[in-house]
Design goal:
- By secondary structure, this protein is mainly α.
- It is built from 15 helices and two strands.
- Helix 3 packs antiparallel against helix 10.
- It holds the Pfam family EamA.
- InterPro entries: EamA_dom (IPR000620), EmrE-like (IPR037185), Solute_c_fam_35_mem_F3/F4 (IPR026505).
- This is Solute carrier family 35 member F3.
Length: 399
């Protein structure tokens, strides 16, 4: 039986109020060409440029992918914005961002079980849990998941995951959710800069422009509130969160490369196990030192905590595995769409002032984010598109 690979490259952490920290770049089936179709006749094409039914099937497949893309965009947007707003609401009753981070990260252990359920339902070649686990462990090397591998290749990413989420949630306490969500979009620019420096990725002028726009947007966002200490600290926390997310993604690509769906699910579950085993002591210490203290466990809003965790888990699942049904660019667009959603909610629930500087900063950062979504060969595709449009205009009959 032929096995198709799905490649995961760190990108969104976790991008969430905490975002996804990995992004899938492949599919369970062979990927379509990322660029425009070549100027050649498809199989089944007839003379004179007329195509037969196979071309229609291809178009129908693309339409199906676009439909699922809309669904994925809505899921990413709603889960991201929903988790951010619910975190803000939770802090009114439960002022413990690190404990909330720890609680939500524990839910990562569900990644591999959920993946295995999908494997059983979809795959024609059934494997036991043990067999599937051993096969996915090959991602870590010939010896599988050893104690040394756990502490050298998994633990550092567990720390980065926790820092990304904690800094993001702590920032929500300082500034409004609109500023937090838009500033976190800068992590894509940080990923490009780190990849260019560390991984020697291809230099792209348009992405340098996007990075400059992101930095300019950060400065303008700080200026929008008059450089008050409270807002400056909040913005610094979001930028720190975006930086940790970018570092996570670049290190993942540097140390681990890419992974199939099952390997990615196992890796994320391992991060949840690491969180339970080694991070649990920190919320306990914070509780007894009264840094994050609550008088009674009955006062904890368990509904909010569980709701936030479910939304964050949904966000990470869709962002990491949505590539199986649609294009990765559409999933990233869902993150941008969460910004206006948060802005609308903030307008009616908080005292946010959308002055000219803030609006311009949001637009600049959003534009930079969209520029970073352009593929490497975007200029070649643009030239081909303009050439085709020009030829089509010349061939058109004059009335």
């Amino acid at each position: 039986m032929k096995k198709h690979s799905a490649r995961v490259a760190p990108l969104s952490a976790c991008n969430s109020p905490v975002l996804t920290l990995t992004k899938v770049e492949g599919e369970e089936r062979p990927r379509d060409s990322p660029g425009p179709a070549e100027a050649q006749a498809p199989a089944g094409a007839e003379a004179g440029g007329r195509t037969s039914h196979p071309c229609w099937r291809c178009s129908r497949a693309q339409l199906k992918k676009m439909f699922w893309g809309v669904v994925v965009v809505l899921c990413v947007c709603s889960s991201w914005a929903g988790s951010t707003q619910l975190a803000k609401l939770t802090f009114r009753k439960f002022d413990a961002p690190f404990t909330l981070t720890w609680f939500a990260t524990n839910w990562n252990v569900l990644f591999f079980p959920l993946y295995y359920v999908g494997h059983i339902c979809k795959s024609t070649e059934k494997q036991s849990v043990k067999q599937r686990y051993r096969e996915c462990c090959r991602f870590f090397g010939d010896n599988g998941l050893t104690l040394k591998v756990f502490f050298t290749k998994a633990a550092p990413f567990g720390v980065l995951w926790t820092l990304t989420n904690y800094l993001y949630l702590h920032a929500i306490k300082k500034v409004n959710t609109t500023d937090v969500s838009v500033l976190f979009c800068c992590n894509k620019a940080f990923v490009f800069l780190l990849s260019w420096i560390v991984l020697r990725d291809r230099f792209m002028g348009v992405r340098i422009v996007a990075a400059i726009l992101a930095i300019a947007g950060i400065v303008m966002m700080t200026y929008a509130d008059g450089f008050h200490s409270h807002s400056v600290i909040g913005i610094a926390l979001v930028v720190g969160s975006a930086s940790m997310s970018a570092l996570y993604k670049v290190l993942f690509k540097l140390l681990l490369g890419s992974a199939k769906f099952g390997e990615a699910a196992l890796f994320l579950s391992i991060l949840g196990v690491f969180n339970i085993l080694f991070i649990t002591c920190i919320p306990v210490i914070l509780y007894f030192t009264k840094v994050e203290y609550w008088s009674s466990f009955d006062d904890i809003p368990w509904g909010n905590l569980c709701g936030f965790s479910v939304l964050l888990l949904t966000f990470n699942i869709v962002l990491n595995f949505g590539i199986a049904v649609t294009y990765p660019t559409l999933m990233s667009v869902g993150i941008v769409f969460s910004v206006p959603v948060n802005a609308v909610v903030d307008h009616y629930t908080s005292k946010i002032v959308f002055n000219g500087v803030r609006v311009i900063a949001i637009i600049i950062i959003g534009l930079g984010f969209l520029l970073l979504l352009l593929p490497e060969e975007w200029d070649v595709w643009l030239i081909k598109l303009l050439t085709r449009l020009k030829l089509g205009h010349q061939d058109a009959p004059y009335s």
